[in-house]
């Protein structure tokens, strides 16, 4: 049976979920329901009603390293191996669609969800995501890159408007998605909660139709983030296929009425229904057991995969006097609560019920063949930052009989989570106080750093070695031990810049934005593009990573097709490095950062081996988005191609003459401070010059609409609305103080606009009922309450009629 043969209501029904995690099927048409599940770094397969915040229980699954950690491997093949394991687990757990990878550009280090995203650079994000997508879909399971697009802060995430100029949007924030879509052909894609230049991402024609479908050729299913759909009609008209979760019958009735009135073209409804049906067919497996569990063999095998990925992703940031690797027989004082109770993932919808957990302390106490002697263990600090001098004193005493101290430090569970942004880049003071006290013992110190994103390291001179393991998944402890002892040679490189201080960040003075409009004032100068162009020193540059071996680069040649060079391992042990290719445009051209990454490859070499390495250029290498012609162009002239061991340290360079599509066009003088990347000094006129039109921000609200978050009700004239906002805020604060973890449910409600109620209550609340709710903060409490009650009965009656029609009763 073809889509056009279904009733109008049946076609509309395919565009919204049946439950929290299931799509709606149509049995008589052979369209099967499919199961979606969170899964950027492990499956969160919930049964029953479930939730979208990682609060409820889920089936055991392998917790792999998070995207922010895996990106430091700079190894798409490693990401692909992780994807294959994820796809295999999805099939075993009855999942058809994996909601990942997350690949938004990291605009600011304090974004609470940065651990779920790959990089500040679209080349790294795009190629790493493409690897994961290929791996997942090789198992007959759909991958879903997200969040498309411009999700850069968690505060007000369902009610914020990302305001960005077209060049920056195209070149920085969309290119990673473009690479992933063109290279890996994902079967699905998820939109973000926020608006982009005034239109919600899930109904943004420019994003979904003009760019994603028409320009990039994406022909898959687009799904909203959970509760992220604003208008079902606008979504269907502009390229979004499926509302999730269970929006209920109200959305169906709106779609049917819109087609009947001519507001929505029937061809658009049919196209969206076809996309859902196509995905159902692609992922259908009659033998899939929706109640399934992982086998013991799978659990063991994938734990080993998780360890291998963690080993390839760890970054050695400091190694004074070759303190690492630890010599065999070393007597080690192990310090830090995280050495006993590991933290290896973030909080929120990506939180995995790991099949196995291991700790550094447990492994060193066991018969595990480490070659080390555990002299003592001490907790060292309170996990959630309370100062406790007794714990510091105990740790100092414990180190007295050791040759070396290994201190496990980092961020706790409440510091990095979906739903809220970090308040600081610092690790807790209790931990830095501990490190200061340990340094005074005179013993060499190795810090094992646990964090999903950059932290301030003004304490770094108090340790000899710093090994950044990130959020390394359930096998993080054994991976760390292998790295410390030299069984594995560190080969990770940072996929984002680590600033000396937070104030050095280009967006530090306006993050997170507390009002609706988030203006991306820094334009293209994000991450290393800013630090290099503005000549601001960083603690660790983008692409930085040390090794137990040393590498030499030589014999470089470059042309329009790519770069060829020799890489030599000068040391007595095997190791791997990342060859990074940067380009600089001809002088006198359009506004650009001083150089940009345009290619990379990871190279593993035996001791004293030399290998010729080739990195090819592609359609993304020399292009820029030209707003005058509304097209990609390439400037003619002499470009400079560079080989870097990181973004700051250039090893080799060569000129390349490029015959482009346009002659260099000088940057507009009106850009002012942008010309030297002094983005914090940019004034309104210069901002308007970057955008090409006056940037208008929403003023202070005089009234509240269905898309204003409940947190904004604190400014309402209505005492009832203010009470609701105040009650929720106090509840979240109290819960966090009590449990040590953020109250994600309450945070979600605070950030939620009322219109989301109609999208997340399985049809219990209709759009008309939302309109009634909005009367309350606008000072009409009794009219709002009365309208809500009346709307409830009207909606219940309409739902009964729709259910009968849909079931052909």
TrEMBL record:
InterPro entries: Cellulose_deg_GH3, Fn3-like, GH, Glyco_hydro_3_AS, Glyco_hydro_3_C, Glyco_hydro_3_C_sf, Glyco_hydro_3_N, Glyco_hydro_3_N_sf
UniProt keyword Ligase, yes or no: no
Record-linked Pfam families: Fn3-like, Glyco_hydro_3, Glyco_hydro_3_C
SUPFAM superfamilies according to UniProt: (Trans)glycosidases, Beta-D-glucan exohydrolase, C-terminal domain
This protein's UniProt keywords: Carbohydrate metabolism, Glycosidase, Hydrolase
GO MF, one example: hydrolase activity
Residue ranges of every copy of the Fibronectin type III-like domain listed in the record: 577-647
Annotated family: Belongs to the glycosyl hydrolase 3 family.
PANTHER family in alphabetical order: BETA-GLUCOSIDASE
UniProt-recorded name of the protein: Glycosyl hydrolase
Organism listed in the record: Bombiscardovia apis
Lineage: Bacteria, Bacillati, Actinomycetota, Actinomycetes, Bifidobacteriales
């Amino acid at each position: 049976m073809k889509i056009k043969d279904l009733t109008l209501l049946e076609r509309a029904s395919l565009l919204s979920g049946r439950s929290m995690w299931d799509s709606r099927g149509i049995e008589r048409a052979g369209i099967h329901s499919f199961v979606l599940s969170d899964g950027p770094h492990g499956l969160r397969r919930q049964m029953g009603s479930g939730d979208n915040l990682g609060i409820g229980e889920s089936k055991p699954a392998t917790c792999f390293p998070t995207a922010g950690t895996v990106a430091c491997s700079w190894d798409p093949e490693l990401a692909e191996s992780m994807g294959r394991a994820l796809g295999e687990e999805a099939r075993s757990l009855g999942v058809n669609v994996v909601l990942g990878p997350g690949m938004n550009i990291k605009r600011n280090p304090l974004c609470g969800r940065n651990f779920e995203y790959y990089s500040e650079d679209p080349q790294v994000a795009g190629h790493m995501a493409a690897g994961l997508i290929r791996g997942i879909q090789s198992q007959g399971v759909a991958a879903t890159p997200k969040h498309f697009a411009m999700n850069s802060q968690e505060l007000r995430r369902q009610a914020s408007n990302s305001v960005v100029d077209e060049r920056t949007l195209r070149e920085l924030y969309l290119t990673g998605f473009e690479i992933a879509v063109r290279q890996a052909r994902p079967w699905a894609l998820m939109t973000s909660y926020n608006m982009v230049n005034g239109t919600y991402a899930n109904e943004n024609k420019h994003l979904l139709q003009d760019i994603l479908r028409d320009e990039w050729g994406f022909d898959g299913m687009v799904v909203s983030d959970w509760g992220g759909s604003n208008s079902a009609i606008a979504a269907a008209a502009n390229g979004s296929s499926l509302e999730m979760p269970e929006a209920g019958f109200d959305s169906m009735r709106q779609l049917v009425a819109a087609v009947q009135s001519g507001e929505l073209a029937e061809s658009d409804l049919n196209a969206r229904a076809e996309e859902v049906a196509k995905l159902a067919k692609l992922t259908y497996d009659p033998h899939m057991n929706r109640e399934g569990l992982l086998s013991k063999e799978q659990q063991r095998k994938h734990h080993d995969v998780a360890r291998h990925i963690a080993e390839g992703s760890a970054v050695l940031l400091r190694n004074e006097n070759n303190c690492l690797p630890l010599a065999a027989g070393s007597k080690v004082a192990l310090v830090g609560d995280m050495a006993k109770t590991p933290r290896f993932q973030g909080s929120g919808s990506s939180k995995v019920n790991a099949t196995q957990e291991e700790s550094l302390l447990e492994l060193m106490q066991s018969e595990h063949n480490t070659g080390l002697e555990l002299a003592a263990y001490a907790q060292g600090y309170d996990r959630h930052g309370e100062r406790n001098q007794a714990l510091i004193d105990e740790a100092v005493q414990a180190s007295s009989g050791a040759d070396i101290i290994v201190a496990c430090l980092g961020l706790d569970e409440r510091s990095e989570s979906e739903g809220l942004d970090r308040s600081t880049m610092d690790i807790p003071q209790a931990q830095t106080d501990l490190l200061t006290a340990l340094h005074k013992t005179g013993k060499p110190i190795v810090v094992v750093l646990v964090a999903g994103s950059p932290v301030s390291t003004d304490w770094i001179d108090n340790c000899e070695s710093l090994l950044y393991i990130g959020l390394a998944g359930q096998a993080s402890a054994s991976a760390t031990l292998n790295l410390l002892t030299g069984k594995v040679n560190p080969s990770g490189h940072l996929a984002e810049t680590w600033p000396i201080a937070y104030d050095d960040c280009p967006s530090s003075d306006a993050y997170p934005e507390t009002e609706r409009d988030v203006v991306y004032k820094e334009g293209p100068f994000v991450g290393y593009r800013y630090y290099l162009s503005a000549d601001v020193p960083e603690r660790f540059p983008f692409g930085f990573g040390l090794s137990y071996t040393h590498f030499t680069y030589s014999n470089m040649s470059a042309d329009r097709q790519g770069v060829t060079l020799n890489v030599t391992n000068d040391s007595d042990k095997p190791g791997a490095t990342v060859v990074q290719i940067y380009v600089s445009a001809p002088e006198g051209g359009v506004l650009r950062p001083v150089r940009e990454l345009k290619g990379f490859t990871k190279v593993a070499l035996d001791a004293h081996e030399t290998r010729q390495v080739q990195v090819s250029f592609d359609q993304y290498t020399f292009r820029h988005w030209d707003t005058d012609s509304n097209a990609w162009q390439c400037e003619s002239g002499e470009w400079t191609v560079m080989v870097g061991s990181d973004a700051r340290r250039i090893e080799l360079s060569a000129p390349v003459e490029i015959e482009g599509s346009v002659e260099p066009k000088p940057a507009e003088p009106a850009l002012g401070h942008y010309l030297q990347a002094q983005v914090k000094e940019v004034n309104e006129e210069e901002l308007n010059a970057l955008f090409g039109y006056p940037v208008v921000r929403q003023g202070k609200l005089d009234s509240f609409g269905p898309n204003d978050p409940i947190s904004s009700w604190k400014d309402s004239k209505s005492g009832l609305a203010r009470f609701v906002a105040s009650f929720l805020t106090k509840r979240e604060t109290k819960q966090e103080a009590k449990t040590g973890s953020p109250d994600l449910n309450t945070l979600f409600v605070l950030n939620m606009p009322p219109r989301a109620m109609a999208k997340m209550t399985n049809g219990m609340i209709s759009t008309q009922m939302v309109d009634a709710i909005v009367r309350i903060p606008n000072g009409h409490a009794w009219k709002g309450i009365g309208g809500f009650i009346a709307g409830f009965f009207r909606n219940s009656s309409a739902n009964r009629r729709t259910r009968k029609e849909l079931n052909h009763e």
